[in-house]
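Researcher: We plan to redesign the surface later, but first we want a full-length starting point. Tokens attached.
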């Protein structure tokens, strides 16, 4: 019997809203339909401003949460129309929300989004606030996708890595013996996006062409590689709270470099930090990449240069790389509705398995 859930994701890159309908009633999760839409420019600017402390930020955060939920509702309704479905066909929406603070060391993480408003606009129950219960249990609250990666992608007799490159990069190590580990490795696209926007006004480096036009600077790369996060033991997670404009500017202070060379260096930093994190776990047999970074050909080539195995898109496993994270939050919503745990203490550092998320009924 079909059990249809919607998954919603807006990530650190702030590039858009990803939405999927999935059937979780069969032997294997199945993607039914997908739709993406850019964030409205005004909302994107609001969310960017909230990444740093500001005056009256509680009020501004609530306004942004409302706007975020209205935008998500529009995408959900358009997705249902595209798929020929009604709201009554959907069990629940799994809504990640937009992270504006991630401070597990202080005991909290904050993903804004008015889940009650989303339920009201769509007529569908909403599951949200997935991360806070894991943090309450002493965990990082992130990454949460390794359990989903295990359910969808694990392969006996193969050390398989599933790598998500969004604004931040996170990896799931799916060991041949069934063990699972995972953590954030550091910047994905976030620093490259900041730098190209500052110089060219683009939100991302299409295909990595601008980075490919430059040459990585060994001294700058070495300086950035000294960031303590890279050698910090897992469990660990990060975000714009660490890898932000001020972090980048601090490393560039007093330097006069060609902007494209800095971009090439940032791309190299992302590839190096991901590969180093993977190789610290052992020798992978295969690496599968999802998220926006899979479209950066220069980055993918750099990863292949660093890693001793083939690097593929998750498309080779039957799942379009653009929809894997939204798919994951549909799966997490189903787990919550069913009263099943979905965190992995070995990944997040939580004291035990927990049911993640809260439900806002339709």
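Model: Full-length starting sequence:
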């Amino acid at each position: 019997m079909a059990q249809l859930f919607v998954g919603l994701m807006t990530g650190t890159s702030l590039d858009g809203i990803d939405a999927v309908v999935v059937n979780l009633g069969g032997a294997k999760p199945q993607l039914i339909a997908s739709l993406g839409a850019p964030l409205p420019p005004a909302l994107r600017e609001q969310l960017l401003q909230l990444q740093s402390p500001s005056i009256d930020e509680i009020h501004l955060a609530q306004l942004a949460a409302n706007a975020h939920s209205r935008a998500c509702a529009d995408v959900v309704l358009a997705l249902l129309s595209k798929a020929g479905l009604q709201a009554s066909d959907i069990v629940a929406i799994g809504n990640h929300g937009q992270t504006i603070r991630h401070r597990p060391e202080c005991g909290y993480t904050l993903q804004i989004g008015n889940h009650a408003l989303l339920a009201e606009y769509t007529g569908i129950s909403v599951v949200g606030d997935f991360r806070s219960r894991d943090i309450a249990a002493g965990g990082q609250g992130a990454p949460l996708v390794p359990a989903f990666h295990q359910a969808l992608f694990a392969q006996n007799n193969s050390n398989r890595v599933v790598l998500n490159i969004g604004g931040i990069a996170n990896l799931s190590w799916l060991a041949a013996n069934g063990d699972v580990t995972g953590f954030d490795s550091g910047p994905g696209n976030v620093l490259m996006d900041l730098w190209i926007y500052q110089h060219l006004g683009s939100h991302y480096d299409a295909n990595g062409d601008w980075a490919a036009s430059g040459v990585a600077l060994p001294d700058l790369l070495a300086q950035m590689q000294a960031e303590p996060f890279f050698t910090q033991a897992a469990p660990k997670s990060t975000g714009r709270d660490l890898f932000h404009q001020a972090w980048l500017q601090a490393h560039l202070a007093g330097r006069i470099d060609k902007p494209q060379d800095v971009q090439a260096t940032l791309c190299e930093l992302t590839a190096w930090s991901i590969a180093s994190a993977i190789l610290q776990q052992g020798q992978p047999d295969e690496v599968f990449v999802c998220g926006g970074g899979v479209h950066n050909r220069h980055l993918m080539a750099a990863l292949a240069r660093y890693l001793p195995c083939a690097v593929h898109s998750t498309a080779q496993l039957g799942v379009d790389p653009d929809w894997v994270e939204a798919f994951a939050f549909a799966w997490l919503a189903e787990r919550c509705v069913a009263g099943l745990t979905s965190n992995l203490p070995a990944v997040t550092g939580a004291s035990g398995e927990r049911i993640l998320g809260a439900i806002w009924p339709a």
